[in-house]
Amino acid sequence: MNVLVTGGAGFIGSHTVVALAEAGFTPIILDDFSNSEAGVIDGLEQILGYRPTTYTENCHNPETLRRIFRDENIQGVIHFAAFKAVGESMQKPLEYYDNNVGALIVLLKTMQECHIPNLIFSSSCTVYGEPDALPVTEQTPVKPAFSVYGNTKQIGEEILHDTVSAGIPLKITALRYFNPIGAHPSAAIGELPRGVPNNLVPFITQTAAGLRSSLTVFGDDYPTPDGTCIRDYIHVLDLAEAHVAALRHLVQLNTSSFYDIFNIGTGQGVSVMELINSFERVTGVSLNYSIGPRRSGDVTAVYAGVEKSEQMLGWKATRSMDQALEDAWRWQVRVDKG
Ligand code: UD1
Question: What average pLDDT does this structure show over 13-40?
Answer without folding.
Answer: 98
